[in-house]
Design a protein that fits this description.
phosphate transmembrane transporter activity; membrane; about 325 residues; single chain; transport; transmembrane; elongated
């Protein structure tokens, strides 16, 4: 078999594996609050999230096109298939390490850092599309701060609306609302996160000479959506435990406020064709909600641990991908 075709097939397999891992790694964030408040059982939440992720993944393609051309121009990339394969191996490795320790790190940071690191290792810093790369970094950096503020404001509005209501009855009713907000959260996750693997697969097809434009083919969309849905159905209970219980004690009203805040931001980013970290956005929205409820109610020790993981993910994944590329280059 031709080496380039073989590498392209490998990239597609690893891209689907990345999406599968993303499904049980990141989707756990989307349903964590509804599980922790017992609005949904873990099994029901996981299956609902799998279905909503699949639907969301098939709905949009803007983020996929951003990933496929705004970090590195695939038409200008020599050894493109090898670069992308190295990036996927590094991204998957980092995702599995953080999943094993129950740390809700960012798959988006891992993937984008890995693509940049592998490309730089192959062709130097000049290969990066700096305009597009910086635009993506800005979205990744600013979205958690926006989520923190929106979460704070959303919870403040809930407090005013429910001021004279019986808190027990209100929480009971809001628990039903949470079923809808959790479904919305999973849908928006699919509209943004699943597209990253679609973008990677499209990059590989272009680099391998099997595609001439940046359109996302239907089979790419369906296979990536199915991989994420399948991964979601496996579940990510370690991440659910961290996000749903260790940041703060979440009641139904807090969960609904966090879900609405983060879903709105993720969907807004999708409409702007910007990849954001669902992990960052959801965790930050919970912190914002907790701050509005009671500053001391947030476990800032766990929050600090999460933020530190966010910070190191990009450089660690980039370095790892650069090393993996050099190793693959020796083999191929």
């Amino acid at each position: 078999m031709d080496t380039i075709l073989f590498l392209t097939i490998l990239v597609i397999i690893f891209a689907l594996a990345f999406d599968f891992i993303n499904g049980f790694h990141d989707t756990a964030n989307a349903i964590a609050t509804s599980v922790s408040t017992r609005a949904l059982t873990p099994r029901t939440a996981v299956y609902m999230a799998a279905i909503m992720n699949f639907i969301g993944a098939l709905t949009f393609t803007g983020v996929a096109k951003t990933i496929s051309k705004d970090i590195v121009d695939p038409f200008m990339l020599e050894n493109g298939s090898l670069v992308i394969l190295a990036a996927l191996i590094a991204g998957i490795a980092w995702n599995l390490i953080t999943w094993y320790y129950g740390i809700p790190s960012s798959s988006s940071h891992a993937l984008i850092g890995s693509i940049a690191g592998a490309a730089i290792s192959a062709a130097g810093f000049g290969i990066l599309n700096w305009g597009g790369f910086l635009k993506i970094l800005e979205a990744l950096i600013f979205s958690p701060f926006i989520a923190l503020i929106v979460g704070f404001l959303m919870m403040s509005i809930f407090k005013v609306v429910l001021k004279n209501r019986n808190l027990f009855k209100a929480n009971k009713r809001i628990r039903y609302l949470q079923i809808g907000t959790a479904a919305l959260q999973a849908f928006t996750h699919g509209t943004n996160d699943a597209q990253k693997a679609m973008g990677i697969m499209t990059m590989a097809l272009i680099a391998g000479g099997l595609q001439t434009g940046d359109d996302i083919q239907l089979w790419v969309r369906v296979s990536a959506a199915a991989a994420m849905g399948l991964g979601t159905s496996i579940g990510g209970y370690k991440i659910i435990k961290t996000v749903g219980t260790k940041i703060m004690k979440i009641r139904p009203v807090n969960g609904a406020a966090a879900d609405l805040s983060s879903a709105g931001i993720i969907f807004g980013a999708t409409l702007l064709h910007l990849p954001v970290s669902t992990t960052h956005v959801i965790s930050s929205a919970i912190m914002g909600v907790g701050t509005a409820q009671r500053v001391r109610g947030v476990n800032w020790g766990v929050a600090k641990r999460i933020v530190m993981t966010w910070i190191i993910t990009l450089p660690v994944s980039a370095t790892l991908a650069a090393i993996v590329y050099q190793l693959l280059a020796l083999i191929f």
